[in-house]
Each structure stands twice: as C-alpha cells, then as structure tokens.
Write a structure and sequence with these properties.
Helix content is 45%, strand content 11%. By secondary structure, the chain is of the alpha+beta class. The protein folds into four domains: 63-178, no CATH class; 190-377, no CATH class; 397-482; 487-607, no CATH class. A four-stranded antiparallel sheet has the order 1-2-3-4, covered by helices on one side. A four-stranded antiparallel sheet has the order 5-6-7-8, with no helix packed on it. The chain has a two-stranded antiparallel sheet with strand order 9-10. It comes from Polyporus arcularius HHB13444.
C-alpha cells in the first residue's frame, strides 16, 4: 500500500483487520453492509473479511429456516465455512426475490414462477421473503406510534403482499405433500406434522411453529425446576405420573386448559398456530390439547403418543416409561372438565385385554392395549373434526362473525377442500370460491391443486372435471386478452376510474375507493352500441368490500379527500390491500390538501391501461453493499 509520497508501507496483519471486524454488532443492519464494503475493497481485506467465524453470527441471525436436506448438502459441501454458506444462501435469496418481483410485475407466467419457488427454493428462501413482509410503508399510511422511520421502500405494499403470498404457497405445498405421504402410510410422517399442515393455510411455516414449540418446551422444563419435579428418568425419584401432572400444570398456566363450555366447533380450533401464537377466547378441543401435550412431552424426553380407546373416538395420550418394568400412564383431556392422569391398568381397554389374554400381561406389553395409531388415522380424524367445526360455524353464523372472520372462513374452507382431495376414496368436494379466496391464495391453483391434489386425476372423472376447470381458471388468470379492460371499447364515459377515492354513499362521506370494474354481456361486433352490465368492487375504511352490479350506468360520486387515519385503516383491515394499492397521489388533492386518488399497483395499471391511474413517485434508493436484489 502506498502513502501520499508514493512510498510503500507494509500491510497490517490480516488477523488485526479480522479482529477489528469482530466488534461489529450483527444485530445492526449496517454491520453486514460494512462487511460487504470491506470485501470489495481489495483482495487483502477480502481475506480478512471472509473468515468463517466473522460470518457465523450473521448466518445464524438471518437464516432461521431451511429445507433440512438442502442445508445438509450445503454443510457437506462447505463444512462449517459460514462465509461460503452465507454467500450461497444470498444467491438463493436473490433468485427468489427476482422471481417474486416478476410475479408482481408480470401477470403471464405467475404459476410457473410460483412452482419454482414452492417446489425448488422452498423454505431455503423463507427468511428473505420474511424481510420483504416488513418493508417500511409509505409515510401517509404510518401511525405516530409506528417504530418505522426513514424512507419508504419502493412498492412496499405490493412487495409485502406477494412475499406473503409466496410464503403461503411454499408452506401449503409442504403440507399437501406431507399429507400425501401420510395417507400413503409413510411411517416418517408424525402426529405433530399432520396438524401443523392445517396452520400452513394461514401462512405459517411448520418450522417456525416447531421452533415455538421448542421455546414452550424450554419454559415447561423450567416449570419442572421451579416445582422441584424430577424430569430425568434415570433418577430413582422420577415419577411418570407427577411428570405428566407438571406438564399439564404448565399447559394450564399458558391458558391452554381453561374454559368449561364446549366450543369444539370454533372454526380454527385444531390449527396449532392458534394456541402457539395468538390470544384466543375459546376452550381448545381434546385433539388440540392432546397435540400440545404430546409435542411438549416428546421435547422433554417423555415417550408420549396419541391414541384412542376404541370404539371411543376421543383422542387420549399414552406415556410409556423408560424403565421396561414400569407401567404406562394414560392422560385424558376434555373440553368439559379437568384432565385425568391414571395408570393404564385402570383403563377399560387394559381390562378388556386382560380378560382375553391368559396369564398376567407383562408391563412392557401393557401399552399394546392402546396402540400408537398411524399418521393417516390422525389426518382423517383431524379432517373430520375440522369439517364438523366448519359446519357448526356456518350453522351458527352471526353477522359480526361473517364480517370480522371472513378470512378465517375462507381459510378453513380452502384447507378442508384440499385435505378432502387427499383421500382417494372420497368424493371430491364441489370447489367453493368465496370472495376473498382469489386474493388469499393467488398462487395455489397450479402449485397446490394441479401439481399435487389433482395430478393423477383421470380425464372424464369427477376429479378430472375439477382439474379441467382449475386448469382453465389458471389459463384465464394469466391471459391478458381476457383480463385487460379498456374503457375506450364502451361508449359511456361514466365508468368509474380505478383508484378514485369516493364517499360511502351520498348520505355517508366515509371514504372508500373504486377497486376494479368489468363489463359483461357486450356484443363485441357492435361496440358502439355496447352497454352491457357493469360489475364493480369498492373498498371502504373498515375493510368492507362491496360489489355492485348495474345494468344501467350509475351516476358517479364525486371524489373525496382521504385522511391519514382512513388510509391506515384500509391496509390494517383489508389484508389484500397491497395487491392493489402502492400509495396515495397528491396530483389531485381536495381543498384540505388530502389525496383524492390512489397510486395503484403495476398489476392494476396493466389491467386498466386507460383509467388514468397516477404513476408512482420515484424513491431515492440507497445502495446497499452486497448481492443486490432487483427493485
């Protein structure tokens, strides 16, 4: 290295540079940027900044999930070189985000790109997608209480939406493939996984929920220490019944055992993410409690498994002792009363077995009266219970339920439809397409339905007819000739402009906006006489989506201004907001300086090219060192 007089001086030792870089805080985003800057300076500093130990905390912090088999291959290739591991994962991140951007910007080809993301990249890119789901929002949609500061990310709303959509299809692809193996009798599928599959329909990663269970198990272990209960089965003081009681005590402390009213019919009762991640006000079903108990016990080293004392169809738990001379205990849960822990010898199943088996039953054989049931049995049982919950929910529908839980209703419907198709002997369900399904599961038709659930459907059969209908819907959803609406084709001038902010009604000035429109029943050969029927959708501040049908063209409401409070309520109450809207436009403001138009997404500008949709304002994008994602 040369100084200002052109003389050379020796480089500092590489180890000194590396030591200095160790003081960077991995929790600060600027730290990884600094590392990349050093990597790009020269070859000498690249050597200092590419030391594996430097990158381990960054790798562990950024990459929390993966496809286990793929991670094993990377470890076999790179060993414990965290610099190379990090760079390999960043390559995958860049590829995934490029595909997601293409899905967002280009309607044709979405299904093919989603297939690559779900089937090939999968959970290896989950963390990169998660970072997209928390991008800084446009300033007009922020609350003073928000922690977000600084510039908004370009196209934050649609990028958030499509990242969540891709996460969802990745998780559900994992679920239906796992259910497929369970139904086929694969012994590698666990009871834990079967129920985790249902939560993927709410966008949850099964690996993230498994990590939540790990955390709860660690807390439960602490309860054993606090209660001074022995958990080590090699300890002479270990008591299996007391260990089960302590686990139930912890479950009660977490609120999983409360409630006396039988509310098994709650629409998402068997979905594991509810007790693991949400505040809920209904008692969990016996199946949910058995699932929680079994998953905790297994993490605590207790040999618990779910079973049923046939002909009863109530799930219970059996816990085998490590000592072969000890007797298993049985744990029974109910939504109507307290849990019961008792020796297996006091169960009717054991007594019936003892009545037909000559001689004494050896302790190590006692559990056979309550055998461990295969995953296929639990899949069928869970599906039946989920279907009953949904049926009861619909029978007891109340107006507020329909309004506030419409997304959960769509989720449960989609999950049950998909799960039912996994059973070969079952008559395929008539597909129900509720209003929000196209926005909640925009990529599922090809990746989930056609590639897995209907992949073996024979032409002409019931499933084959469903497959043909789904295939046509995929084609139509990506064909611009079918989708694009040009107002110049119609003689009327009072078709609503997409993105215009409007009052709720002439008597109610709460703001809403024109979401989309289409005209049907038009004779294409006589467009100068075309009037047809106008269908339009509008969204209002409470997230309520209203569909209007007009045989004659309605008089348009005059645009109104949009307050920051109303703008924020839209995106908080309507989870699909980001598919349609990027920002507000001040090009046409009201007298108070409030925007009267929205900047719609690239998808909407493609679908309505003549609707005078404002163009997005340019953002100043700071250059981030390291492999760049395309914005």
């Amino acid at each position: 290295m040369a100084d200002i007089e052109g003389k050379t001086r020796p480089e500092l030792p590489v180890e000194l540079y590396t030591h200095a870089l160790e003081f960077l805080d991995p929790n600060q985003p600027c730290s990884v940027e600094t590392l990349f800057s050093v990597l790009w300076t020269n070859n000498y500093l690249r050597t200092a900044a590419s030391v594996s130990s430097l990158w381990k905390p960054y790798y562990d912090l950024r990459y929390t999930q993966c496809v286990p088999e793929n991670e094993a291959r990377r470890r076999a290739q790179f060993g414990e070189d965290y610099y190379k591991l990090y760079m390999k994962r960043r390559e995958l991140d860049h590829r995934a985000l490029t595909l997601v951007d293409a899905i967002r910007l280009e309607i044709p080809g979405r299904s093919a790109r989603a297939r690559v993301l779900a089937q090939e990249l999968s959970f290896d890119v989950w963390d990169a997608l998660r970072a997209e789901t928390v991008l800084p929002l446009p300033e007009y949609f922020r609350s003073p209480r928000d922690e977000i500061t600084g510039e908004a990310a370009p196209q934050a709303f649609p990028r958030r939406y499509w990242a969540r959509a891709v996460q969802g299809v990745i998780a559900r692809y994992w679920a239906v493939r796992m259910w497929q193996r369970a139904v086929a009798g694969d012994p590698g599928v666990t009871f834990e996984e079967v129920l985790l599959g249902f939560s993927t329909f709410c966008g949850w990663s099964p690996y993230a929920l498994a990590q939540e269970l790990d955390s709860f198990a660690a807390n439960c272990r602490q309860t054993f220490l606090t209660q001074k209960v022995v958990l080590d089965q090699a300890d002479p003081k270990f008591d299996l019944t007391k260990a089960c009681d302590t686990t139930i005590f912890y479950m009660r402390a977490e609120g999983w055992m409360d409630g006396e009213e039988d509310m098994d019919e709650h629409i998402l009762n068997i979905y594991p993410h509810i007790p693991l991640t949400e505040q809920f006000s209904f008692p969990l079903s016996a199946l949910s409690r058995v699932w929680l108990f079994v998953t905790l016990c297994r993490r605590l080293g207790l040999d618990a498994y779910p079973t049923m004392a046939l002909p009863s169809t109530t799930p219970i738990c059996c816990v085998r002792p490590q000592d072969p001379t000890g007797l298993p205990v049985v744990v029974e849960f109910s939504s109507l009363g307290p849990s019961v822990v008792r020796p297996i010898t006091l169960t009717s199943a054991y007594q019936q077995m003892a009545g037909v088996v000559p001689g004494d039953i050896p302790p190590e054989m006692a559990w056979r009266c309550l055998p461990e049931l295969p995953a296929s049995t639990w899949f069928t049982f869970a599906l039946k219970e989920a279907g009953q919950n949904l049926t009861l929910y619909r029978e007891e529908e109340h107006e507020d339920w329909l309004h506030w839980e419409n997304e959960r209703l769509c989720t449960a419907t989609h999950a049950i439809q998909c799960a039912t198709m996994m059973i070969p002997a079952a008559e395929p369900p008539v597909l129900i397409h509720r209003g929000d399904m196209a926005d909640m599961f925009p990529l599922d038709a090809q990746v989930i339905m056609l590639d897995v659930l209907l992949a073996q459907a024979l032409p002409g059969s019931s499933r084959g007819n469903i497959a043909a209908a789904v295939r046509m819907s995929v084609f139509n959803s990506e064909t611009l000739d079918v989708l694009v609406m040009r107002r110049s084709r119609y003689p009327r001038t009072d078709i609503p402009y997409v993105g215009t902010i409007i009052p709720h009604s002439m008597l109610d000035d709460r703001p809403g906006f024109e979401l989309d429109w289409k005209v049907s029943g038009v004779d294409e050969r006589e467009t100068y006489l075309a009037e047809g029927t106008l269908f339009k959708r509008q969204v209002f501040a409470d997230g309520f989506e209203k569909t209007s049908t007009q045989a004659s063209w309605p008089e348009r409401y005059p645009p109104v201004g949009l307050s920051k409070k109303a703008a924020r309520s839209w995106y908080l109450n309507w989870s699909h907001f980001g598919r349609y809207v990027e920002d507000v436009s001040f090009a046409d403001a009201d007298g108070d300086g409030q925007p009267t138009k929205l900047v719609m997404t690239a998808e909407m500008r493609t679908l309505y090219p003549e609707d005078c949709i404002p163009e997005p304002q340019p953002y100043l994008i700071p250059r981030i060192p390291g492999p760049q994602r395309e914005l």
